[in-house]
Every structure is written in structure tokens, then in C-alpha cells.
Write a structure and sequence with these properties.
three-stranded antiparallel beta sheet; alpha+beta; single chain; 135 residues
Length: 135
């Protein structure tokens, strides 16, 4: 039905609740679910994502990420505005380090890169550390 008690959900997935919370927080940030106390409920976007095929799920995820995750939106917008659709990841790392510790900046950048890659918004070339616009 798109709604569950968080503790029951953790039991059904063989997770500890504490291990499930980061996933729930990420899904909430992406607008895929809402949290009310210990109850989690899929939003319409979450229901659409959960029932979609792989390509549709990636498109829904990309839309949610660009519209709800500021760093993903910043990366995507900057890549769209660049001359060749490429920027070095150091550009974003330097921006993040202005307000976050080095380790927090790395964690946030890694997550934004992973989410953008999953949504096929941009690619990441590990050997050059370039982000490349794909969408």
C-alpha cells in the first residue's frame, strides 16, 4: 500500500533500524517518501519510481535529484553552462570545502556524483576526475 512502520520495514528487509535510516533520509531528500513518526509513506514519485522499469526509474530519479538535491542541481547546471560540458571535480570540491570539512566535502561530492551518474545526468571519468554532461 505504499506505507509501512519503519521498525517492521527494517525487520522485513533484515536491517537494523539504524542501518535503514540513511536510506530513508536519502529517499526523503529525493521526495520519494515522507516520514511521520515511525511511519514511512511513498509519495507519488516514490510509487512511480518503485514500479518503473530501469530506464524510467533512472529518469524519475534524475528529475527528483535535480529538483531536490542542491549539489546535484549545481553540478548539472554548471556542466550545462560550461563550454564543453565538462568540469573537473576539484571545482566542486573547492566550493564544498568553503563550508564543510574536507571529509564532509568528499562524502557529499561522492554521493552527488553517484546520484548524477545513476540518473544519467553526468558521467565521471575517474582517471581525469572530470564530470561530463550526458543529459
Amino acid at each position: 500500500g505504499g506505507s509501512a512502520d519503519l521498525t517492521e520495514l527494517a525487520d522485513n528487509l533484515s536491517f537494523e533500524v539504524d542501518d535503514l535510516l540513511p536510506l530513508v533520509d536519502a529517499a526523503q531528500m529525493l521526495g520519494l517518501l515522507t516520514i511521520n513518526g515511525v511511519n514511512v509513506t511513498l509519495t507519488q514519485a516514490g510509487k512511480d519510481w518503485a514500479s518503473a522499469d530501469v530506464l524510467q526509474a533512472k529518469q524519475i530519479f534524475a528529475h527528483q535529484a535535480v529538483n531536490r538535491v542542491p549539489l546535484v542541481k549545481t553540478i548539472y547546471t554548471a556542466l550545462k553552462g560550461s563550454q564543453d560540458g565538462q568540469l573537473r571535480e576539484d571545482f566542486f570540491r573547492d566550493l564544498l570545502r568553503r563550508g564543510y570539512t574536507s571529509s564532509d566535502a568528499e562524502e557529499q561530492l561522492a554521493r552527488a556524483i553517484d546520484w548524477g551518474r545513476y540518473g544519467e545526468l553526468y558521467e565521471h571519468e575517474a582517471h581525469t576526475e572530470n564530470l561530463i554532461l550526458t543529459a
